[in-house]
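We emphasize that the prediction below concerns an isolated chain of 327 residues; any contacts that depend on oligomerization or on bound cofactors are therefore not represented. The input was used exactly as deposited, without trimming of termini.
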Amino acid sequence: MMDEGHLLEILGLIPDGIILADEHGRVVYANANALSCLGVNINAIFGKEIVKLFSPIPMQEGKREVILRLKEINKPVRITLARLSNMQWMVVINDITEIHRLQNEILNMDKLASLGGLTAGIAHEIRNPLAGIKATVQALEKELAKHDPRVSYLERIVKEINRLDGLLRSFFDFARPRTPDMRVCDIRDIVEDALVSVKGIARGINIALMQFYSASDSTVYTDPYMVSQVLVNIFVNAIQAVSKEGRVDIHVEDEDKFVIVSVTDTGHGIPENIRGKVFDPFFTTKSDGMGLGLSISYRLMRMLKGNITFETSDAGTTFRVSVPKEV
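Result of the prediction step, given as a token string:
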């Protein structure tokens, strides 16, 4: 027979969280993984009833998925509650954060694929007559005298046509991104190239852009144009999230097989009720936005075997762009 000491040693090595409770449902033991998952020490839960730890779960055997709220962090877990032969209780806690992340990623990719085909068709149907309208307006412009006051009207029409054409190009980027042109390059050059496009915006509202390059090896294998496009989108969002005279910090760091570009703003953070929609196509909180910037960026980074994640609070938001190092 295995003694209690060996049994507890084995329970401590199990990668899942394990909690044991007496016949009344009061906690008598919890392994390190259970304590880590709950964010507490053993003294905080010893003798407490299981139902109070996982409220509103009833004291009934079976599996349930719940969301634990720990220090303002929502953690999805699967709880398995079992009655032992000695009438005591055992709770098994599985952290299913990664499962939820993968499920959400699959849903996002499905949305992007479905909307991509629809968007390409609509953009194509609009762009063809738009080109005809522009050609007609330009022909009319040539027939008028240079100082004819009606020329300004035609110029305004051409300007709006060009703006619509730019929007349609964004639709095409979203719907049918080109094949990546992969090459070895320095992420610092890509960051500097992207910053050139946004420095004027930041300067106009007195936002400081601070760069910190701490990566010992900043060489990546990627499509520099696509990564630059991603960074411009994130830089613009960060600048727009900051009040006047705020700042945006850009850090470049090593992390295992990736070089990470972190972009941190001093804004007010992303409201909790929309955090799950940040990468959704056509979702935006801006009156003049289309909601495609982050959707396109997310799709491009997945094509490049990288990733985009974010963390946010009332003190601001940090977006992390992971770019692969290896060929």
